[in-house]
Amino acid sequence: MARTTDPTPPADADAAGAPVLSERDGGVLLLTLNRPDRLNAWTPDMADRLFTLLREADGDPAVRAIVVTGAGRAFCAGADMDALSGISGAPIEVDGRSMAAPAKLRKPVVAAVNGPAAGVGLVMALFCDVRFAADDAKLTTSFSRRGLVAEYGAAWQLPRLVGRGRAMDLLLSSRVVLGAEARDMGLVDFSLPREDVLAEALSYAGVLAAECSPRSMAAIKGQVLRAHETGFDDAADEAAGLMAEAFAAEDFAEGIGSYLERRPPRFPGLGTHE
């Protein structure tokens, strides 16, 4: 996707010290985890900022697709070890559902895993809708080697992506897999040279933003998420009802019209209350 300067960039687009940077190019919002000196290690401030930006993007009609990546040479090396050392032995409260935020948005979220992704950083990528990874990116669950458990719904999501046996392997051993192996097992969807990862992820998101109906993508994400827990009959019955609604909606008319007229579609954006 060609990078252009957005005439109305987010307020923090140039805030170099922010834990997450935000930059919009047309309908694509790029969110960059921004602690490169610590391999973008996860902190509460980073989590709060990322989830705030995701919620805002979901309600912004100008945003149609989101890409998440890391600054520097890493995606996210997991939780900040200095912060973890301070809570050893202390009772804490954890929102175990928070990492599923990308999956629960109505808009597509693409992970550009440009380098190491470990622990909570890997889990966050797993809940994105599509994952691009560098061929040499090192991916690991890491939990069993830190005396932890499968955090933030990883035990639910990982088997659905790679199967029970591979999920058990990755969780029990915490072994490191590279991007190419991760692609072969379904942990990521595309494996590319490191220098191409972000550009390809942005290009992919650009196609979603320019050519795909935001309402269709929102409906499809909801269908896939619910289908995790339902049988075929429930999923098919839901699809039948949604199909009837889609045939009567303006996006269907625009999709057919743009095809017949051989022009790009002009789908409306998805706002807060839709």
From TrEMBL:
**A Pfam family assignment:** ECH_1
- UniProt-listed SUPFAM superfamilies: ClpP/crotonase (SSF52096)
Entries under Gene3D superfamilies matching the protein: 3.30.300.220, 3.90.226.20, Lyase 2-enoyl-coa Hydratase, Chain A, domain 2 (1.10.12.10)
The entry's family comment says: Belongs to the enoyl-CoA hydratase/isomerase family.
**What is the name of the protein in this document?**
Enoyl-CoA hydratase-related protein
